[in-house]
């Protein structure tokens, strides 16, 4: 099942009427333990919380007499369950929640590090460079030919290569170590305002590697260290090498078999380039 | 209190980019405060899942405080899921940059200082150059 198809079990830590309050230490330990297991927790207290949606809801509380109430959504939309946590420590509570999660077939968290590009559409010019550059079909276009991240779980963990070649620094990886890739403000000094378009098929030829190196040396003073095209190429190579060594990851077999053959990579790049060109042609027509 | 902001805390579970002492300190502060709040394991993961909860977290008339990372990243983690945050009443408290004391104080302070990048504020209009 694709990660985007999985539902999330929501947990409410209830301390209102009919339930005893937790002391702050127990509350903190419980919330921390649940977050560490990947759950979302609503702590009821003074002030507003976000409205409900139609995801499954698990309400935890130290209910009177240790008896969790039985209730159901008046509109019959939300699957809701109440569970008493009297006498349970944080570990016991997470075990209880895990049992409930399994019974609702909600998403099991923590199986995939959420590493994927996030597009800043305030900056994006829809130039399709990212679509051309990425060999893993992470990018695509919507019905309006607007670039979008379509297959975020295809993205190679810790590889921010596409963000380095984005001419507008519009691609973020929020878990990256440094800015502007991590979402920090893009300063004029960091942004390479020279709009660089990389022809991906040429990029795979030796002459262009040399050209890029020359270009990098010429403009080193203007290029941010974190946005150099040499570094982007290096990261792509690193990812391709890693792919070849890890045959059990979710990459199409034909792609794995092709790596690290330059010819096959070139073919893949051509397809991506054609998709980008089609999207750009559609925009201008 | 009608104007009290809603609070959303991101635990940034799947990476160590937010210092542990800051995120745990902010969470402890919330748990001690008696304030209602939403806590999520990882906004990035929710965005990757296109989790519908992002829409409910972004919805509502109240101002919102989000303890997470950089405002630009938070804006588009929501925005990429068609769950746009209201730029005029959303403040992101950046736990990657602030000390635990400053971050906790900012989250629990009822004054909201909106700091999301304005819509379309930096879209480029210059031409492109091929190499």
Chain-wise SSE layout:
The complex is a heterodimer of chains A (285) and B (131).
Chain A: E1 10-14, E2 19-20, H1 24-36, E3 40-43, E4 57-63, E5 80-84, H2 90-104, E6 118-119, H3 129-133, E7 139-141, E8 147-149, H4 161-165, E9 171-172, E10 196-197, H5 200-203, H6 206-218, H7 229-245, H8 253-258, H9 262-284
Parallel strand pairs in A: 1-3, 1-4, 4-5
Antiparallel strand pairs in A: 2-4, 6-9, 7-8
Helix pairs in contact in A: 1-2
Chain B: E1 6-10, H1 20-33, E2 37-40, H2 43-48, H3 53-58, E3 64-68, H4 71-79, E4 90-94, H5 100-108, E5 129-130
Parallel strand pairs in B: 1-2, 1-3, 3-4
Helix pairs in contact in B: 1-5
Note down, in words, how this protein is organized.
The complex is a heterodimer of chains A (285) and B (131). Chain A is an alpha/beta fold and 285 residues long. Chain A folds into two domains: 3-104, Chitobiase, domain 2; 118-284, no CATH class. Chain A has nine helices and ten strands. Chain A has helices at residues 24-36, 90-104, 129-133, 161-165, 200-203, 206-218, 229-245, 253-258, 262-284; strands spanning 10-14, 19-20, 40-43, 57-63, 80-84, 118-119, 139-141, 147-149, 171-172, 196-197. In chain A, strands 1, 2, 3, 4 and 5 form a five-stranded mixed beta sheet that branches. Chain A has a two-stranded antiparallel ribbon with strand order 6-9. A two-stranded antiparallel ribbon of chain A has the order 7-8. In chain A, strand 7 (139-141) and strand 8 form a beta hairpin. In chain A, helix 1 crosses helix 2 (90-104). The radius of gyration of chain A is 24 Å and the shape is elongated. With 131 residues, chain B is α/β, with parallel strands linked by helices. Chain B has one domain: Rossmann fold, CATH 3.40.50. Chain B has a four-stranded parallel beta sheet with strand order 2-1-3-4, with helices on one face. In chain B, helix 1 links the parallel strand 1 (6-10) and strand 2 (37-40). In chain B, helix 1 runs parallel beside helix 5 (100-108). The longest helix of chain B has 14 residues, at 20-33. The termini of chain B are far apart. Strand 10 of chain A pairs parallel with strand 5 (129-130) of chain B, so a sheet runs across the interface.
């Amino acid at each position: 099942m694709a990660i985007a198809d999985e539902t999330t079990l929501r947990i409410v830590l209830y301390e209102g009427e009919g339930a005893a309050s937790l002391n702050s230490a127990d509350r903190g330990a419980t919330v921390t333990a649940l977050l560490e297991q990947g759950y979302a927790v609503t702590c009821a207290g003074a002030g507003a919380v976000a409205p409900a949606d139609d995801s499954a809801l698990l309400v935890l509380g130290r209910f009177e007499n240790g008896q969790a109430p039985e209730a159901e959504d008046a509109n019959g939309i939300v699957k809701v369950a109440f569970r008493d946590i009297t006498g349970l420590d944080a570990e016991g509570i997470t075990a209880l929640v895990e049992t409930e999660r399994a019974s609702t077939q909600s998403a099991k968290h923590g199986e995939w590090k959420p590493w994927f590009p996030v597009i800043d559409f305030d900056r994006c010019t829809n130039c399709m460079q990212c679509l051309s550059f990425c060999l893993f079909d992470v990018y695509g276009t919507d019905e309006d030919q607007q670039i979008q991240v379509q297959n975020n779980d295809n993205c190679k963990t810790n590889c921010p290569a596409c963000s380095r070649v984005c001419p507008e620094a519009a691609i973020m990886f929020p878990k990256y170590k440094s800015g502007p890739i991590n979402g920090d403000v893009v300063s004029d000094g960091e942004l390479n305002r020279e709009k660089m378009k990389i022809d991906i098929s040429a990029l795979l030829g030796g002459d262009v590697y040399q050209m890029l190196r020359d270009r990098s040396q010429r403009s080193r003073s203007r290029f941010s260290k974190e946005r150099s095209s040499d570094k982007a190429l290096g990261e792509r190579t690193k990812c391709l090498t890693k792919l070849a060594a890890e045959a059990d990851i979710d990459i199409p077999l034909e792609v794995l078999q092709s790596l690290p053959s330059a010819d096959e990579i070139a073919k893949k790049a051509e397809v991506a380039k054609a998709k980008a060109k089609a999207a750009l042609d559609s925009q201008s027509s | 209190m009608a104007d009290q902001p809603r609070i959303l805390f991101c635990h940034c579970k799947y990476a160590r980019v937010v210092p542990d002492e800051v995120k745990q300190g902010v969470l402890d502060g919330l748990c001690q405060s008696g304030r209602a709040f939403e806590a999520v394991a990882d906004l990035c993961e929710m965005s990757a899942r296109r989790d519908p909860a992002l829409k409910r977290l972004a919805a509502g008339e109240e101002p919102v405080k989000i303890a997470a990372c950089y405002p630009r990243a938070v804006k588009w983690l929501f925005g990429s899921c068609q769950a746009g945050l209201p730029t005029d009443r959303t403040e992101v408290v950046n736990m990657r940059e602030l000390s635990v004391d400053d971050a906790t104080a900012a989250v629990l302070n009822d004054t909201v200082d909106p700091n999301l990048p304005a819509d379309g504020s930096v879209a480029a209009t210059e031409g492109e150059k091929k190499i």
